Amino acid sequence: FSSVSNVPYIMSTAANGNDNKKFKGDVRGPSVPSRVLHIRKLPSDITETEVIGLGLPFGDVTNLLMLKAKNQAFLEMNSEEAAQNMVGYYSTVMPIIRHQPVFVQFSNHKELKTDNSPNQERAQAALRALSTSHVDTTVAAPSSVLRVVVDNLAYPVTLDALCQIFSKFGTVLRIIVFTKNSQFQALLQYPDGASAQAAKLSLDGQNIYNSCCTLRISFSKLTSLNVKYNNEKSRDFTRPDLPSGDSQPAIEHPAMAAAFSKEPRLGAAGPRRECDRQEPVDEKSSCLVTPHCLFILFGVYGDVMRVKILFNNKENALVQMSDRTQAQLAMSHLNGYRLYGRNVRITLSKHTSVQLPREGHEDQGLTKNYSNSPLHRFKKPGSKNYSNIFPPSATLHLSNIPPSVSEEDLKMLFSSSGAVVKAFKFFQKDHKMALIQMSSVEEAIESLMEFHNHDLGENHHLRVSFSKSSI
């Protein structure tokens, strides 16, 4: 799967804030390391603080050039090594800002030169406020323990999710989550005050999910945390031998996603696998949804290991992803979308893995093991597929099309299930790829599940993904 557009905007070896209009696409070869990074696909209302926050975990940010009209930015790190660490990390862990994947790559610029326009003055002010190079490192942080309050808790936030977020700034030693005064809170301990200070500078005021779950971070008066149990409410990563506690719930497993409840239940303090009440499932939709369908759909956002549709409650399913990042990515992109006339609700599950049926026990084919599937999109580290993760859209990207297959062939194929094709376009320079626009996002999701890996003959199997473009 090739990127539709993977080129930076470049004028010379130094980027200048005066020359936004002169930027031209430059087809480039393999990425050459540079301490200047090109960041693409930013939300239109992105702030300077959020862009700088992408770089702070890896070192000092020395300059910033915002191109908001192009949904892009250039970030200059203090060293090439810091930039390489940042690109390496984000090539395996896709940064998500407000449900939108953001792409980070090396720029051809060797340095950034910015002007005194109001735009750049805001960027420089944000740099002075946030960059660790402007923090007096001779003054010790008040504590290595942070107190985290999550405001506007519209979606569940788990201990594992917080660990994943805060571990970008240092090793998380211990963490405790609790509810106090009807607020979801956490205490989190780093090995040193510098890590705590960097995390607070970068994350305070940021949203975990789009327009909700806002982090309010302060230094705790505690100097250390005393954790007695390792479970979903507390964890001591230096003491894996601690018990889970007699009456404590099982540890939430971060790589599990539960799908197919009727509607999201908002405001819960922790993950819920099911709604308290559910509507009777439409018989047609429960028959159409198979483990293979879920494998294909969730496989757009990560490698699916196992799928189980519940035997006694076929409107619910368990989908096991290969790691926590992919589970969070699938949940943030697919939750709330319609499928066969119903809204899909996705939360983290309390199950540690999907159990396969015992030998000799039939479950009507409702449980499938895909751990060795050749259809996994993200097996190879740094795969191009990481750069092509987009939310569901009415337009689909098709690839691996053999020369003998025409536009009419593909339009007939995608219409054969009863869906309506609104537009179609082959890529001008590469007829192995095309865009096809369905009449709705729901139809596009269903078409992707049905026709991804469809045999087109000549040893070509169709590859289908959601597209960021429209026709």
UniProtKB/TrEMBL annotation:
InterPro entries noted in UniProt: HnRNP-L/PTB (IPR006536), HNRNPL_RRM (IPR055204), Nucleotide-bd_a/b_plait_sf (IPR012677), PTBP1-like_RRM2 (IPR021790), RBD_domain_sf (IPR035979), RRM_dom (IPR000504)
Q: Name a single GO cellular component.
A: nucleus
Organism equals Salarias fasciatus (Jewelled blenny)
Name one matching Pfam family.
RRM_8
What SMART domains does this protein's entry cite?
RRM (SM00360)
**Highest taxon of the lineage:** Eukaryota
Location of region: Disordered:
355-374
Q: Tell me, which GO biological process terms does this entry list?
A: mRNA processing; RNA splicing
Which ranges carry the RRM domain? 35-109, 146-222, 289-351, 394-469
Please report the name of this protein according to its UniProt entry: RRM domain-containing protein
Q: What are the GO MF terms of this UniProt record? A: RNA binding
Could you tell me the keywords of this UniProt record? Acetylation, mRNA processing, mRNA splicing, Phosphoprotein, Repeat, RNA-binding
Note the PROSITE patterns from the entry.
RRM
